[in-house]
Amino acid sequence: MRASSPNFSFLQEYDQSLFNQAIHAEKYCLTDPVYALTRLRLFGELLAKNVAARFNLSFDERTSQNDLLRELKYQNIIDARYGMLFHNIKNSGNTAVHEGKGTISDALTCLRYAHLLAIWYYRVFKDKTFRAAPFEPPAAPENIENKLKQQLEQVVLENQQLKKQVVDTEKISEEEKARRLAVEKEKRELWQKLQQAEAETLPPAAQDQAATADYQSVISELKSESGEKSDNDFKTAIEASRAEADNLCLTEAETRKLIDQQLRDAGWEADTSTIRYSVGVRPEKNRNKAIAEWPTGSGPADYVLFVGLQPLAVVEA
What we know:
Largest sheet: 3 strands, antiparallel
Strand content: 5-15%
Helix content: 55-70%
Structural class: mainly alpha
Number of strands: 3
Radius of gyration: 20 Å
Low-confidence stretches: none
Order of helices and strands: HHHHHHHHHHEEE
Number of helices: 10
């Protein structure tokens, strides 16, 4: 029986393993965001291996996701922004796996990043004319607590604004608008079916190793095929991958979250939602803080970096 996904159905015929991880993340992003993040972590790992194999890069089961992503960027196969999507999914997934931590907001953000990566993957390697419908977040269920409901509604609002931005930019026809509305309605119905489905036993973490092992046959076949490709074939594929960077559309909140992660990776305390001037956060001795919305003479700066009490730099999103 075919599973139905509000956002990843296009992957099912092309890559069943990636689809399986994505639909599990969709199904549990509201009820068990930690588990959803572990699925997205595996999604990112399998996808990175898939892409690396297509370009005949050298790696094995001991190669870390960090090293693989570094090589993909070094070879110009993925640009910095797509690299950040991969890294954000990895880092949030690591926190879920090793610390058992993850919020609905984290899960929805990473689900949206996975959707962007899935579209990029499909357009570059399967069909460059493919036009995916916009990402559709779930509606808040009635029994969700108020704070989480507000977070979810904010995600929905940002997504609606992004859709409007895309429509305004593309100046699409009334017929296309009607088609997209019909697709959005279908996605909302699929979300309802997912949320109403009977609870399933969550696959144990040990099955991650099995999923990775099963995917090895796909990787081996891709490596074999890439070994027969010419340098010109790789060049054409890299150009297609880099061209897709121009189609990447992020909400302001998503952009901020990616920058937050970059700052954290560089050793700064950064979280736009909580480390902000407007909520009373100030510099402290012996702490390196990236404080958002810091007031300046020309308006609030997106971030000001403080080493202890000393301002070091301004970062604009």
